[in-house]
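Q: What does the assembled structure look like for these inputs?
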Amino acid sequence: MATKGIVSGVIANMVTLKVDGPVAQNEICFIETGGDKLMAEVIKVVGDNVYVQVFESTRGLMVGATAEFTEHMLEVTLGPGMLSHNYDGLQNDLDKMTGVFLKRGEYTYPLDNDRLWHFIPLAKVGDQVKASDWLGEVEENFQKLKIMTPFQLEGTYTIKSIVAEGDYRIIDTVAVLENAKGEQLEVNMIQKWPVKLAMTNYQEKPRPFKLLETGVRSIDTLNPIVEGGTGFIPGPFGTGKTVLQHAISKQAEADIVIIAACGERANEVVEIFTEFPELDDPHTGRKLMERTIIIANTSNMPVAAREASVYTAMSIAEYYRSMGLRVLLMADSTSRWAQALREMSNRMEELPGPDAFPMDISSIIANFYGRAGYVVLNNGQPGSITFIGTVSPAGGNLKEPVTENTKKVARCFYALEQERADKKRYPAINPIDSYSKYIEYPEFDEYISKQINGEWLEKVNELKTRLLRGKEISEQINILGDDGVPVDYHVTFWKAELIDFIILQQDAFDEIDAVTPIVRQEAIVNRVIDICHSDFEFETFQQVIDFFKKIINICKQMNYSEFESEKYRKYEEELDKLISERKKA
Amino acid sequence: MTTKAFQKIYTKISQITKATCSLKATGVGYDELAIIDGRLAQVVKISGDEVTLQVFQGTNGIPTDAEVVFMGKAPSLKVSEQLSGRFFNAYGNPIDGGPEIEGREVEIGGPSVNPVRRKQPSELIATGIAGIDLNNTLVSGQKIPFFADPDQPFNQVMATVALRAKADKIILGGMGMTNDDYLYFKNVFSNAGALDRIICFMNTTEDPAVERLLIPDMSLTAAEYFAVEKNEKVLVLLSDMTSYADALAIVSNRMDQIPSKDSMPGSLYSDLAKIYEKAVQFPSGGSITIIAVTTLSGGDITHAVPDNTGYITEGQLFLRRDSDIGKVIVDPFRSLSRLKQLVNGKKTRKDHPQVMNAAVRLYSDAANAKTKLENGFDLTDYDERTLNFAKDYSNQLLAIDVNLDTTEMLDVAWKLFATYFQPEEVNIKAELVENYWPKA
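A:
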């Protein structure tokens, strides 16, 4: 018999229940009010008083209302048929909901039980299997998805029977397993997983090393992220966090992209709904929406579901990683998630940590980032979850708990800067404060030397040094004046400006400039480094400025032209001519 | 509001603070309204049989034996066409001497729009002010605040924008607005002959602060009625959201909640988002656009209210007095409209995005030159030219008294480019330069 409870108190979305039996921490219950059933999660137990957070508005809820416990934690339902769907934070299918407004207590099934899938068995009768082993394969949106043994399976089972190739529904039994004790288990295509637990169904988690191409130059060239890597983008509002995140999710070389819109603007999600079905995936030529899943908990949706939404997204990502796919997970923004935790902690009257956030915020963030990563599955196949989260620091001040705790765990840091944004130098990633730890990995060095060339990292380092030097000189020029420094200083400064304008700055709204494939990035870096290595003849600093402005203008036109097109060649010639005129013999 | 027959009357209040009363009562729903000593109150906490009420007018003079009647419903508004042209207080009662509204009763603060039922905003709102239309184009269904110090003319600009915006309905929600400003809005709208399109919910500085909490939800409930049921384009003006946040802080303080940054409640982000996210474009053509005012103290945008607002709204508009031209301008650096790329170059001429960026970049070069000048350095010829450009740009485009259509604005910008610069200094795509650079 399931435990029942009776409402004894209400403060906003925190409700206290008196219960008549056992309950588990994080167990789900449904509270009945005015014909609606409100989903809620246990967050604290004191004797027979149970504190739950309700995922919906509690308007009209009265003391004495009844609640029924479900004996399971918040779960996602996983299976084929999730791609290009739009879910809310609790994995309700938003498209299945009727009406313009969200209705309280309306929960919709995330999958489609009637759709037929063409199942191809990968295992055969008599095979020994463990949890998460691959039984077969179906195809969705031209992606091969694996059908696996239940993730919760304990010990070794033998396949008693498996269906032949053919069309099946997700609720049809595709295999029967038997363990040593002779217990039989029927397996269909549906899996369930409690979202707050990490899936650990892999052999090992080696250090990631493969470049994940994003087409954004200031990431790929300067501070690359890798398949299975973690990164975060903090920035004050208006510095282009969302534009950058959308650019990455459009262009990144991943099999599956999951976007968790966590407490952000609804119109930003609408932008994805509207644009992604139209846009082509630059790697496969198919529509972007076909590989995308959106978890939308916009800022006006219930706060408790916001906390759940990032876990829902991560569990779905882990499901696809278990199939050996490369998953990119983007969460915008993790600060809103932390704020949801803060609101709850506040209502429970817990002693607050820094900035009134709960004391365990650092471990919560660390555990979450820890679920991403590059893994070797039990069958030796690789799979990865690359996770990039944005952080919205209060007042743009990076010395706040969410930013600081994220910095401890994320390996790439893309600091968006107000000053660059004010100057419209987009993407406003500060080239000096930002970093990628992966660039120091010998594994990455080895990989990139093979993929691009052996001098790549050396050149990248030179770019970084020059940018830093340029910044130092610009400060000196500000203090001493244009005339107060040698002409040489101006040359060094403008070489840094060249790197800034041509490599760092990129127009996300220009069809061509928005995406730069790595081959093209290599060409740009080589050209810029060549110019930086050239000695020029100048008499006055004004000549330096005029000359470099012309160079920057031509290089920019090249960035706007199709790679190696006739127009591109024309600008290239023009550039070479300009440079050779000024070059010292 | 009258009490219904057979309602239980409670007369024993156990606790009174400045904004709340607690009493023992049963069968009470969360968020429910009550009348306590003739004043309206709302349930904010239930713990066993103890119910805490937030009293909107304050608890001055409430005795412990006051009569308390629960009304069994959340705050609501009667909606119908009769709302047009009327002025109401925070409870939705007429304050213009006219008759009560007849219509369907709707609970305020209703549910959110399903994101998949929204449409991407794509209609330009032309205001004629180039600082807005050229650099920070507004789009219907957008939400955007003015960040302004209390002495800046934001109410005037807001009124101008509202009148030029061609909205079917203009809903003004006043929170802690001075009576003088209230009368100003009333006059401007009446002089423009727009009174029949106006609906106003007003809480002035003379009214109790906590009543303000109802204003945004009242205004937006009326807006949803016209946008959803009548497919109208509704513009909602909310002034001033900082006063609203102050009222939130008062209530949370009285409820013994742990304050987060700047003494604001920890839920400030969600509270503000619930309001601003009501801005929407419906596929049926109806829309709600929100233009709000967030007053700053000394231009500090890191304060919790503007900071949280900035993360919710789709940009912000800054006003600044430009001492070079002696006029108020829309600050091109700090202002931003996040939805502008949905219309720029699509609904406007295709050179719009690049012209806008180039002009701002040159204006920023002028700011650098100005710093140099202030530090006593010699200016280069380029510096001199940017300074002259900045002055003209400020006067002819950024000033709030400008009234041009977007094509004219772009032409003015090209003319200024050609006056002071060479094409390669402007960094615009060559084909646009060929097309639009004024021929000598």
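Residues 75 and 194 of chain A are 4 Å apart (CA to CA).
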